[in-house]
Amino acid sequence: MRARLQAHAKVLVGAAAFLAALVVSPRSGHALVCSVLDGRPCIYRPFHQVCGVFRHRPCTPELEYPFSEQLQLTIESRDRESDAAPGPDEADGEAAEGLGTIRAVFAALRSCWVPPGKEDSRPGTQLSVRLSFKRNGEIFGKPRVTYVTPGLPEQTRQAYWDAVEAAVERCTPLAFSSGLGGALAGRPFAIRFVDKRSAS
């Protein structure tokens, strides 16, 4: 009888040690449950979720979808306007009901861009701006330049910036559909302008 009790006790001790190793020492990035007895903050590394000692439940990963990531768009200027201009199904297809897709928004933004005249531009110039919109399609604040090709003369830089401001003025307010306006409100847009025109 005593031997049987000792065997049961060893099994219970082994099981307790195994559970303690899982809960108390989540050293790997894939540990799903954290303990307040751990020697450092309990962080589920793939999602950087920090757990506290006052939580009433285990620290389990909460999937956060990347809704806060910025939307990236590249607008290229070419010698042949037909190469860069959007088709009617992209730019105008949803005009009556409002822009209901990201693709339609990008097409509308492309259609508003008019590059500087060649006398004020330089082939190969790149300019990146960041901006966001309100729910009603108006721009939130002002565009912010995040990159410009180094070494440009001040007059050339100003010509491209004037073209960006004119495009924003020409394009806003965007005619978002009610659903898309709520989804895009406040989300940053990163727009990169690339001048691929020839010098002449």
Task: Describe the structure concisely.
The chain is of the alpha+beta class and 200 residues long. Helices cover 34% and strands 19% of the residues.
What does this structure look like?
This protein is an alpha+beta fold and 200 residues long. It has helices at 2-24, 81-84, 88-91, 102-112, 154-171, 178-184, and strands at 42-44, 49-51, 71-77, 126-133, 139-148, 189-195. Strand 1 and strand 2 (49-51) form a beta hairpin. The longest helix has 23 residues, at 2-24. It is elongated, with a radius of gyration of 28 Å. The N and C termini lie far apart (100 Å). Residues 22-32, 43-49, 60-68 and 82-96 have low confidence and may be disordered.
Helix/strand layout:
Layout: H1 2-24, E1 42-44, E2 49-51, E3 71-77, H2 81-84, H3 88-91, H4 102-112, E4 126-133, E5 139-148, H5 154-171, H6 178-184, E6 189-195
Parallel strand pairs: 3-6
Antiparallel strand pairs: 1-2, 4-5, 4-6
Helix pairs in contact: 4-5
Which terms summarize this structure?
two-stranded antiparallel ribbon, alpha+beta, 200 residues, 19% strand, Fusion Protein Consisting Of Minor Coat Protein, Glycine Rich Linker, Tola, And A His Tag, Chain: A, Domain 2, single chain
Low-confidence stretches: 22-32, 43-49, 60-68, 82-96
The name of the CATH topology of the largest domain is Fusion Protein Consisting Of Minor Coat Protein, Glycine Rich Linker, Tola, And A His Tag, Chain: A, Domain 2
Tally of distinct domains: 2
Instruction: Please identify, by name, the CATH architecture of the largest domain.
Output: 2-Layer Sandwich
As a whole number of angstroms, the C-alpha radius of gyration is 28 Å
Main pleated sheet = 4 strands, mixed
Major beta sheet, strand line-up: 3-6-4-5
Q: Mean pLDDT, as a whole number?
A: 74
Number of strands: 6
Helical residue percent band: 25-40%
Residue share in β-strands: 15-25%
| Name of the level-1 CATH class of the largest domain | Alpha Beta
Structural class, from secondary structure content?
alpha+beta
Order of helices and strands: HEEEHHHEEHHE
Please, how many helices?
6
Overall geometry? elongated
Span of the ends, CA to CA: 100 Å
